[in-house]
Amino acid sequence: MGMTQGKPDRPLRQALSPRGLLTPRLRHASLLPTPSPVSDYSDVIRAHRRDHLAKPNSLPRGVHRYFESTLLPLPIEKVFEFFSKAENLQAITPPELSFRIKTPLPIAMKQGALIDYSLSLNGVPFGWRTRITHWDPPYAFADEQLKGPYAVWFHTHTFADEGGKTRMDDEVLYKLPLWPFGEVAYPFVKKKVEGIFRYRRAKIREILGC
């Protein structure tokens, strides 16, 4: 399927599979070889980070990566509970995006759940549909854009217990529409994504009281 504005050109796994570099690490842990019990997803994401740092040009053409790691002085169950409520996403999104959840609340968060939003960027409104592709409380979940402004948007959230504190890692792989012509907007989009996560970090700490 060709790439069209506002819809993914193909599932993320297909977009990343030609080089076979990242796809295994984007899958749910149950799809990975499990030589021993896994208590959290930190090994998975650390392996991905090592891969990317060792091979900075390893991402397929047009796919960009945003990663951040946040340590919260709260138990993992409390942090994950916050993210298990879809309505909290509205509370941690910058107000200038006019983010609204269209799907009736409360939403039962689980693998396969669909969530519809409306947003506005620089006064231009658009819709966004997300599917929860993986759901493994309290250690990880992932969401994928089915309809929206990006050709690809895949957000992996992982949580690890670190002595009663919680290491929260966010990784976003995204691709702009109309590649390669859409790349002209990358500096603007990169700055916008960084700003959204900067606001998000501050609001999470404020709401959770840490």
The count of DSSP E runs of length 2 or more, i.e. the number of strands, is 7
Strand content: 25-35%
Unreliable runs: 1-42
How many H/I helices? 6
The strand line-up of the biggest sheet is: 1-7-6-5-4-3-2
Helix content: 25-40%
CATH homologous group name: START domain
Q: If you average the pLDDT, what whole number results? A: 79
Could you describe the largest sheet, including whether it forms a barrel? 7 strands, antiparallel
Structural class: alpha+beta
CATH class: Alpha Beta
- State the end-to-end distance: 45 Å
What does this entry look like structurally?
This protein is α+β, with helices and mostly antiparallel strands and 210 residues long. It has one domain: START domain (Alpha-D-Glucose-1,6-Bisphosphate, Chain A, domain 4, 2-Layer Sandwich), CATH 3.30.530.20. The chain has helices at residues 12-16, 23-26, 42-54, 76-83, 87-91, 186-208, and strands at 63-72, 100-101, 114-121, 124-136, 140-147, 152-162, 165-175. A 7-stranded antiparallel β-sheet has the order 1-7-6-5-4-3-2. Strand 4 and strand 5 (140-147) form a beta hairpin. Mean pLDDT is 79; it is low at 1-42.
